[in-house]
Q: What sequence folds into this?
């Protein structure tokens, strides 16, 4: 479990709730409400859940009527104990009721190696402020498609074009075909299930389930930008189109 000082220091970065989520991937509550209209209990995954504020707000709003899942790389990024502490601090739950909260199903796993869930498992997958840290961005998107159910929807805060970083590092998802660089949105439009949507803060990727998704990309290299400069965050991933 993270110490209190660590939690305080990291709150602005790992405790983003539903209001932050809306700025990055649109109105998630409206999407969930639409899915619930058919009366089915839905299953939701947040990748890179951090301190789990959004998940806890969803639990508060919907109770155990929705099945919540979250994945972090390690427990040091946030676990159930941290989630409870932050949820009380943020006023999502009272301290006397936090022990009765049904916890989300949490997994600690490096998503660069794939998502540890069955095919066609989730109704909704979302991610805010974590995709830019993944080295295997192409594989992650393929895996999201795999775990989405037939009518599943994913919303991913890509943040792949970042201001304030030298141009050679500013594009976090770089695609090359021979000597030509292909912009991400131009490349993925051929697959028919990727859509650029506008949120309050920036655009995001909305994905719909397709039976098989192979982006046809091979990772050439990935650089953890924080190793170059402490104020740069994320991983720059460079791909080539497979022959």
A:
């Amino acid at each position: 479990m993270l110490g209190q000082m660590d939690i305080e220091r990291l709150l602005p970065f790992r405790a983003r709730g539903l209001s932050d989520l809306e700025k990055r991937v649109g109105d998630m509550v409206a999407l969930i409400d639409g899915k619930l209209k058919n009366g089915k209990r839905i299953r939701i995954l947040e990748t890179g859940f951090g301190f789990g504020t959004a998940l806890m707000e969803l639990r508060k709003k919907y109770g155990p009527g929705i099945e919540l899942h979250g994945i972090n790389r390690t427990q040091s990024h946030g676990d159930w104990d941290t989630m409870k502490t932050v949820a009380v601090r943020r006023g999502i739950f009272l301290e006397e009721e936090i022990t009765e909260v049904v916890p989300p199903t949490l997994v600690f796993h490096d998503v660069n190696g794939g998502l540890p869930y069955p095919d066609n498992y989730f109704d909704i997958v979302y991610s805010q402020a974590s995709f830019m840290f993944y080295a295997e961005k192409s594989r992650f998107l393929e895996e999201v498609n795999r775990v989405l159910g037939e009518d599943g929807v994913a919303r991913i805060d890509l943040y792949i074009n970042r201001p304030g970083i030298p141009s050679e590092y500013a594009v976090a998802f770089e695609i090359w075909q021979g000597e030509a660089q292909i912009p991400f949105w131009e490349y993925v439009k051929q697959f028919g299930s990727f859509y650029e949507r506008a949120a309050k803060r920036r655009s995001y990727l909305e994905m719909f389930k397709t039976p098989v998704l192979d982006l046809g990309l091979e990772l050439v290299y990935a650089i953890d930008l924080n190793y170059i400069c402490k104020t740069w965050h994320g991983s720059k991933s460079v791909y080539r189109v497979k022959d």
In short: The chain has one domain: 4-157+192-211. The chain is about 30% helix and 25% strand. The mean pLDDT is 93. The two ends are 46 Å apart (CA to CA).
